[in-house]
UniProtKB/TrEMBL annotation:
Residues 587-598 have a biased composition (Basic residues). This is Membrane protein. Keywords: Membrane, Transmembrane, Transmembrane helix. Residues 454-598 are annotated as: Disordered. The keyword Oxidoreductase does not apply. Residues 454-472, 535-552 have a biased composition (Basic and acidic residues).
Amino acid sequence: MKSFSPFSRYSVPMPLWMQGAVEMLITAFISFGAVFVLLLAVWLNNGFDSVDIAALSRLSVHLWLLIHGVPLHLSQAFGPAAPHGLMTFIPLGLSIVPVLLCFRAGRRLARASYEGEFFIPVGAGAATYSLLSAGAFAYASAEHNPLSLLAAALIPLGFVLMGLIWGGYYEARSLARMVGVDTAEQISRMSQYSRWAGSYAWAVVRASAVAVVAFVAGGALLLFASIMVNWARIVSIYQSLHAGAVGDFAVTMLQLGYIPNMVMHSMAWSTGSGLSFGAGTNVGLAHSTVQALPLFPSVGAIPQNLGIIGYGALIVPVGAGFLAGLWFLREGEDHFDEWVALKIRVRALSLPVSAIGLGVLVGVFTGFVSFILGWLSSGSLGAGPFTEIGPHPAKFAMYTMILVGAGTAAGNMISRLFVSDSSRELSRFADEKPAVSERVNAYFGFGAHKTRDVARQDSAADSHESRTDNPRPKTRRSWALFGDESDTDSRPSANDEPVTGGQPAGKAASTDEEVPEQDSKAAAAVEDTTAEPSAEPKKKLFEVDYSAHDAAETTEVIEPVRDEEAGESGDQNHPHSSPMAAMNRILGRHKDKGHHKN
């Protein structure tokens, strides 16, 4: 990064590990400062009774560790009068703050790093952040349990590394460049089938990401609709708190921190897996079994006993899968469907097989992501019966896998009704396997064999020549590119008909002394090509030996072109009887002005 300081010309750039440590120090102080300032504003307005500034700083440390995922001991954070429980219900909305700060640091470290050096400052920065977290926990806790200290040092690294890698990828646009791997070189070593499989797998991952994003958006819409419908109940809970302006502000900020959790709860509720707000409670699509709920305003948005109307929420996960299936078809990387269509010729059978396979893959990936989201959004308040809050991660993942997978398969099949089916054309592009002998010889390098495509071209050329009224004499063609050649001679025999009307057959079958020097050299080049191929080094793909083609072209007896306009008899020495003269005549470029008619 360019510096405009007058002393930058005399400064020495920091090493990468030091820059990573400095960036994470800044990130930690900014995120902790945000939590401390928020609690300080509440404390200045007498929001905490009999709490000094030292106790407020320890409470800030505990809350700062909580938003990083470290469990909060209520008695250590709020004093001996608080319940002796462990709070694990993480406000993910506040956890976004350190993640975004780490995202910024990751971008800066990516700019300062060369290819393959990104994880040097990341490792140093993560170690620095871990030491800061452990030191903060040791300062704020009265009991120095080694396991708790280790948890405080390691758990925050999940959010830190996620933000750093996200920022580095956003800046580098390639995970391979961050690691230092040449992706193009690795892909060039793969076969075409491996490339197709990789393209299909990457398209499945992106389709699953589309399903996850659509699922989260649907959960947010459900939460918004539930808040609007139950707004009166939420306002009544606010009024029953009697917290005043400062208390209402603190409660509102706390609810904003739990909005991502509530969105994920709405996602789990839409799948039918249910929610828990305390031991022995369950919130389902049609019926809900709840006990005394905490006086938290957002709890008033919980739907209760909706009946058959509640099953309409199933459209959220199914619709997310439908969008993923539609996107996957538009991506054009459905190579599994192409393979199935080649194996199963009946399209009515191959299409469901490929669509179900896609639905299973997208469903498994989306279910895995749902398990992580459900685990992060659930937890315990550590007090009373509220030890189980949120969805059941395993149940949530299973229901999501089924519904999203079914929606993906349906979306992929239905969307094909609006596009033309090209499965019938796949057989034209299918690779034809050569014979076993050809594959063995090609593998061990024994001899040179003509491929089927070349044989097909030769047969088509021979049939075309046999249909002509005035056939040309067969020539010796040198297929140097494919290692084969024909068995006919390049010069006509004495029994052949005269090629032109002006030359007798005897002259065409003249002795070797009468053959021009150029023709003798061409014949020698052809004889060289008939010999056994010598051991030559392997060439690169698509590298063509043009010299062999030139030698083959010179051995072909070319029928002279009649110049009817000039009234010539087809003499080969005539300037208009060569192929180049014919091309010049077509293009209007005449070298001999005497034969040009005005």
